[in-house]
Amino acid sequence: MYDGPIIDTHHHIWIVKNYPWLTAAPSPKIFGSSYELLRHDYLVNDLIKDFGGNNIVKSVHEQAHYNPPDHIGETKWLQSIADQNSYPNGIVGYADISASDIACVLDGHIKYPNFRGIRQVVAWHPSKPEWQIVDRPDYCLSKKFHLGLEQLEIRGLHFELQGFPNQFNFFSKLITSHQSLRFCLVHGGLLVGDDEVNFDEWRRGIEMLSQFKNLYVKCSGLNVLNWTNNPRSLEAITRQYNAIIDMFGAERCFFGSNFPVEKIKISYDTVIKLCKLALIERTESEVRAFFHDSADDFYRLT
Fold it and tell me: 289 exposed, middle or buried (CB, 10 Å; 0-12, 13-18, 19+)?
């Protein structure tokens, strides 16, 4: 199996007092309703301990819904952590893309050298209120949202797009309107189930999106939608990740752990092992691209 360097493009660290969703009474989230494990400080040394001996050479921190009025505060804090440690090497922050002050917020973020882009979750699924993060499935197609993405483009930033297969038609329209802006589809396109019906819907949608050369896919969050008591199987992960690489090419796919959220189900060592086994039939160059080179290029980490 692959034993080369790995870049983890999707993890979090936090001091819980700065994250209201962690201090509030537990309620159903996209990853389920049982998450006591997460309701504690998770600092950079905890992350490095979880990295273990897996040769994680660089990492990217994904915004984790910091104190809502202070979006830039998370980036400022993370940069201070990076300045004193080896991680994170890249920072994906939050901004309300539709807000009238989007340009000002982005200018605040880009003062910090490790800042690379924005994630604003626009996920909306018809069957579960817990999976309705915005108020309608086509939220991303508003005029204000388009204008906000233009501000990202002006500054050479990228946008991390998180939503469900039922929204992929809207994502296609969005990307069509911004073909010089780089997008990243988070958590492998949020496959909602490993049964044939859900897999086929996801596969058809993501195949449509694969035509856009400015769209990349982050293969992260193996169990982010898994509300069962058991982790997803190697067979299910193998089928999903190989389908993504077949459609996008390994040069537009990269690995992310989604730690510590994934820790609810499995260890970091197991995440790495499953992903390596899932790609066991791919070429050496494809696996190297998936675990390191594609992320290094997309996040401009070198």
Answer: buried
Three-state DSSP class for 62?
strand
Tens-place pLDDT, residues 166-190:
999 999 999 999 999 999 999 999 9
**pLDDT recorded at residue 266:** 98
Buried b (16+ CB within 10 A) or exposed e, 170-190: bbbebbeebeebbbbbbbbbb
CB 13 within 8 A of CB 301: no
Which CATH number characterizes residue 81's domain? 3.20.20.140
Residue 1 lies in a domain: no
Domain that holds residue 87: 6-298
Longest dimension (CA), the chain: 49
Across the range 117-128, mean pLDDT stands at 96
Q: Which pTM does this prediction carry? A: 0.97
Q: How many domains does the chain have?
A: 1
Looking at residue 31, its pLDDT comes to 94
